[in-house]
Specification:
This protein is an alpha+beta fold.
Length: 140
Amino acid sequence: MKINFPIISYLDNIFSVDKGQGFKAIRVSFPDKNTMVCMECERNSVPGWIIESSGNFIELKPSGKKREWTRPLSFLTNMVLSQYVVSEGRSITVGELKMRMKSIKDKFPEAPLAEDFRIFLDKYNNDVVVSENILLDWPI
């Protein structure tokens, strides 16, 4: 599977914008079109999502861990992997995205990225489909 960067993502309770470097840092890979594997960031993975630069919305549902036996070595390096089931990409409306954004908290209060995105989305009607033009209009 190929992801079209830049993306907006919510993965392991972290809301971020990524041009590709972040995904490289956590070693994201797609062994097949329905599976994503990455370095474990949180012990308890939660459902997440990706919005590609085109507006394509992809859901991520945790499906397990790999190499958990390496957890005792995590003081040296993290080798545990989180695995996710990847949904087929689809369009998403501003209203649905606002609902998904409601419970997201900024990890770094001094850089309120999620709050800024919520305020930005308020400019649009709930029934508008998120598109490349909308995403390009967000001044990040």
